[in-house]
Input
Amino acid sequence: MLVKQVTNEKEYSDAVEVRRKVFIEEQRVPEELELDEFEDSAVHFVAYEDGVPVGAGRFRQVDRCGKVERICVLASHRKKGFGEAVMKAIETYASAERLDGLKLNAQTQAASFYERLGYVKTSDEVFLDAGIPHLAMKKLLSP
Output
């Protein structure tokens, strides 16, 4: 297992390939919502197994907080630690940027995954994003 911060077009293409399979094909998120105006300004991450892209995520800085987005793992590789590895890579990056914390909008079916990683709900209010129920969550980073 290898998680890399994207540094070139091939790695970015690998990350987008995973996102397309999970969000656009599997979850039916419209492409124009998945690939949005923040693609160029976000920091992207991709997870590999034996050179094959299997997970992805991205990070944006919003004020003194990091915004974790687009965390996904191919169905064939779920529950094998890839999602956690992507999250750890993003948290390490955010810590190096000396950010106060991270926030994310979790699909409700994935909220327990984020809770295991130390994220807490900021509200019990469920909202729809791309037609999928979500909860807002956050995690403070150690100084």
